Known about the structure:
By secondary structure, this protein is of the alpha+beta class. Helix content is about 40%, strand content about 30%. It has a domain at about 5-35 and about 85-170: Beta Barrel (Thrombin, subunit H), CATH 2.40.10.220. The chain has helices at about 25-35, 40-50, 60-80, 150-170, and strands spanning about 5-15, 90-100, 100-105, 115-120, 130-140, 140-145. The protein has 4 helices and 6 strands, in the order βαααβββββα.
Amino acid sequence: MENIRFVPASLEIFYEEIYDSNKKIFQEEYNNLSEYENNDIEEWLKKVKAKGYAQDSDKVLLTLLIELHKKVDRIENILKKNEQKHIQLQHSSRVIGINFDYIKTNDYDFLEKKIYYARIVMPTFPKREIPIFLIGKNSNIAKINLISQKNLEDWNSFIMAKEREQIREMKRGF
């Protein structure tokens, strides 16, 4: 197997192997979680930005308002008992290494060439679980096979931040 360079990270991951019997429910959850990125308020904001009405707005403030709106929506859904529940996945582990295409866990549950559905808990703002599909490379390394565009951008930004952190630590002699 080729030499893969990993950036140290500590993330929680939940995953399960995909079979014909569970493929549809995993695909549905993946679609639902990926669509959540494009809720009503974000669609409205995209239209406003496209028309040029939001050019003088503070991007940080808009992001905070959008996240506040999403929280209110989640609370409303909980109260109405429309809460979106995640599928209980068979395995959980710690991701100990990441790069743009692969993850490395501290457990040895992956089987080579098997496909897995997973959710990784991202320690970013907003904190959320990103759904992905993986292909096992060996017992503790899997290749990212499918991730939504927005989640991919956040994933890549997280990796770059971790790489910068690692470089700073190396310069300080840690």
